[in-house]
User: Fold this.
Amino acid sequence: MERISSQMHDKWFERHWFIGGNQGSAYLDGFAPEGKIVRTAGLLKNVGGERTMTAAGPTRSIGPPPEGKILTEPVPLADTTHKGFFENYRRAYFGEEEFLVQIPETRRVLALMDAVRESGRTGESVRFE
Assistant:
């Protein structure tokens, strides 16, 4: 059996996230988080021109993007703790401040979760908004 490096072993339990959006994507490794935000400087309709070898063979439609089109940014650090959410809930419950997480936001997340489950069950894309 191979010995796992200590650096890899220290993080084996942490989750890895990929978030795709309509203006860019982000990936996060671990709860620290470590990752990057990746977006384009302009809409990429067809980045062809050069022949690129893929697992399915050569293609011209998935070529490398032009120089300067892919922008990479660090993930901003969020200075928060779980305790703050509970403190906010208590203060908001007693009318001292607004809830950080609003009911419409919660409903939207629940609708998304239902759409993900339905998509997994049927194998089809599901629109939830």
Observations:
- Helices lie at 6-10, 82-93, 103-122.
- The chain is about 30% helix and 20% strand.
